[in-house]
Amino acid sequence: MHAAQVGHLDLNIVDGRFGILPTLPFVPGTNACGTVVASDVHPIGSLVRLNGSGLGLRRDGGWTEHAVVPDKAAVATPAGTDPALACSFFSPAGTAWAAVHDVAAVGEGERVLVTGAAGAVGSMAVQLAVRAGAEVIGVVGRPAKLEHVPAGAKAVLAADLSAEALGGPVEVLIDTVGGPVLAAALGLVRPGGRATLIGYSAGREFSVDLADFLLADVALLPVNLMTRGRGLAEVGERLLAEIASGELTLNIERYGLDRLEEAAERLRSGAAVGKVALTMD
Ligand SMILES: NC(=O)c1ccc[n+]([C@@H]2O[C@H](COP(=O)([O-])OP(=O)(O)OC[C@H]3O[C@@H](n4cnc5c(N)ncnc54)[C@H](OP(=O)(O)O)[C@@H]3O)[C@@H](O)[C@H]2O)c1
């Protein structure tokens, strides 16, 4: 193995908060990247990224130096690709693509509000919405993250969020944070608009007054990469190439295996900027 992602899903599994849990003892790590040492299918010495087939969930995953995985959990990856990028890009890039293009169907000239805009999914969503010709406002929870909202978007602190600060309501909300942030941001979408929900780091629940919800007339739409991932394979390869070439930006914080605790805490606390990866090299 060269690198493995430390993702929210991994931490939810490790913390016992995911709907499916592994039998202990087990090795976490749902996404990883390594060089093939032995296989009947994949060329020895080739670079592959690993995920799916229950990796890091129903069977041992990638937070390790050597992993044994089913052939179908390994996908050939262009030689020379940064392993930390190879195991990190698909979740944020695929999810952001699904939210911007497939679920919200962001159109040119629309106003789009993205929460968690310095996060991995949020920053990708900002860039894809800007590229789709939208006017994008990126919301962050802490001042230190304002400078990490990608160029092309207006950066706003969540505490300052209001219809006045936005210059009026938006057509689309892409929410990666959930909980009270979703509740507050929903009120900023104009009637007939769309709100997509991607994550719930800030809270699994929010309450809604159904009378207000009907009057607001905003469609609240979930984005689920697990069900949409297969259909995004081709798009994913394109996005990987664009991130590798610098056309799109995905920040990755890297930690050696011996710094796993620090890596996990950066992600858990919301302090991390972009993806978090373990590197074994
Ligand atoms: N639906 C799907 O298929 C799918 C796919 C991928 C990811 N996800 C989910 O989408 C969410 C975002 O993923 P990501 O990779 O972009 O994560 P990320 O890079 O860690 O960004 C999440 C952002 O949420 C904000 N946040 C607010 N309260 C938080 C809290 N209590 N703990 C941690 N973060 C908090 C932080 O931004 P501020 O500091 O600016 O508040 C943070 O940057 C996660 O919940 C993830 O599980 C869902």
TrEMBL record:
Matches recorded under Pfam families: ADH_zinc_N
Segments passing through the bilayer: none
Domain called Enoyl reductase (ER): residue spans: 4-278
Entries under InterPro entries matching the protein: ADH-like_C, ER, GroES-like_sf, NAD(P)-bd_dom_sf, Zn-ADH-like_protein
Domain of life assignment: Bacteria
Coiled-coil regions, chain positions: none
Protein known as: Zinc-binding dehydrogenase
Organism the protein comes from: Actinoallomurus oryzae
